[in-house]
Amino acid sequence: MSAAISSLVSYGSDSDSENESESNTGAEKVDQVGPDATAHLKPLQSGHTMSLAVLNSAPEVAVKESVETGTHLDPSLKEVTYNPTFETMFAPEFGPVNPFKSQQMAAPRNMLSGYAEPAHVNDFMFEQQRRTFSTYGYALDPSVDTHHVSTSGYIGAIDEAEKNKGLTVFESGHKKSEKRKKIKGGDAGEIDNFLGPWAKYIDEKDMAKPSEEEQKELDEIMAKRQKKGRNEEEAPGEEKTILHVKDMYDYQGRSYLHVPQDVGINLRSAEVPDKCYLPKKQIHVWSGHTKGVSAIRLFPSSGHLLLSCSMDCKIKLWEVYGERRCLRTFIGHSKAVRDICFNNTGTQFLSAAYDRYLKLWDSETGQCISRFTNRKVPYCVKFNPDEDKQNLFVAGMSDKKIVQWDIRTGEVVQEYDRHLGAVNTITFVDENRRFVSTSDDKSLRVWEWDIPVDFKYIAEPSMHSMPAVTLSPNGKWLACQSMDNQILIFGAQNRFRLNKKKVFKGHMVAGYACQVDFSPDMSYVVSGDADGKLNIWDWKTTKLYHRIKAHDKVCISALWHPHETSKVITCGWDGQIKLWD
């Protein structure tokens, strides 16, 4: 220590002598400038000693006292330049230390009861061992190597483990006892032999059984029924046709499909009558069907022929003008015919029947061109109205699907499967780019052609099923016969909104798919009803203008002739088709 001081003093004396020489030279210079200007540069002298400036070249280091007192650490710091104590590291961010916080409370927790370390246990293995323990009372000891399991490797009922050879609940299974008591009347698990829960109380002596002869007769009847049912399902009805007029062709070689020129109006033009009037009286009855008529369709564009289908399994073609004869009968369905549809030219038409077949017919010759089926009942059928898609048609089926067929190949080319009930109607809108379908699920769906996902779905809690839909002549509106005894009008362009101002009421129609129609000039709306009446409403005011007793039974369809001012055709379940004017 003394050596260090002596060296420091010698260093001081050396520096003093150097300072004195520098000060002398400096004094000479300063004298030239002036005594007052250099007064602050002269060192203060107290005798022969002088104050020294101590230089600290070491970095600042925290002293022991500051560490022990617990200097606050910023929790956002990533690096610490000294070794802090545990208390400093785990001190609270702000405020004093909680004196009541125990070590257990301070410990990190990831669940309510503490900290659970992740264990790599297969979920299935855990569940398997848990169930085995709850069933047999033993399970594998998880702390023992499972590859070398002995009876000591189990916990719980080790005796039971030895007895079962350590099998788990999934491996052993509960085998039914072979000595199980045989229940009289059979076991409910064996459905073929089960005679019911009361069978064990019945004495076989008291049971009435058919005699041998009666049993033989019953077997024959059942065999016939089964055979008949198989034949009906497998084989379609034989197709034939009956021509009811003497000559199929006139003196010019024209068939009945030729549009007549001598009926007083131009049936070839696309012009619509300027003003329509209410029909007042019946002018003709077409009778020939032996059962109720299901649907009627006018010949495309001209309307000079009328096609009807009936529950007597027949389809008939009638003249609308002239003698109004029955021209041809088409026979080929074994059950009631539900719907019919002409193609654009009227040379062919489709029929849909309850025998699960759709058939394509030639309107002129009566020949059945082809038949289609997917083993489901078709409820409605429609050709695609586009000229370039006349080989395609769609049918609404009883199995909730809309099926699209190609006539050329006879194969299903698309299925629209979104409805939740049987499909009742299909109506093409928006220049045939889209079609609207209604169903027993009380909804209305709008589809893009050939895209099997509906882009519009309309279903309200207040809505009822709508089993009959008609597009207005101007293509702007859809008239839907609702099962709550009213006709609803939906927009057929873009939004498909319900027009709440246009609701047609006053007729009783619940339970029947009565077809609605418009007058060509959009002045009137016509519909049949359950009482056999023809109802006519005004389009603008929605008032019920006229009601005619048309049929003895349900009036199922009403068509306003597209070229006539006041001619309406109705059909009913009394088997008659009537013309009103």
TrEMBL record:
Molecular functions (GO terms): mRNA binding
Q: What keywords does the record list, in alphabetical order?
A: mRNA processing, mRNA splicing, Nucleus, Repeat, Spliceosome, WD repeat
Which positions does the entry assign to WD repeats? 286-320, 330-371, 416-448, 516-547, 548-581
Q: Cite the SUPFAM superfamilies for this sequence.
A: WD40 repeat-like
Region (Disordered), start-end ranges: 1-42
GO cellular component terms attached to this protein's record: catalytic step 2 spliceosome
Give its localization: Nucleus
Low complexity biased stretches: 1-14
Nucleus as UniProt keyword: yes
Q: Coiled coil located at which positions?
A: none
Q: Which GO terms describe its biological process?
A: mRNA splicing, via spliceosome
**Residue intervals passing through the bilayer:** none
Protein name per its UniProtKB record: Pre-mRNA-processing factor 17
From which source organism is this entry? Seriola dumerili
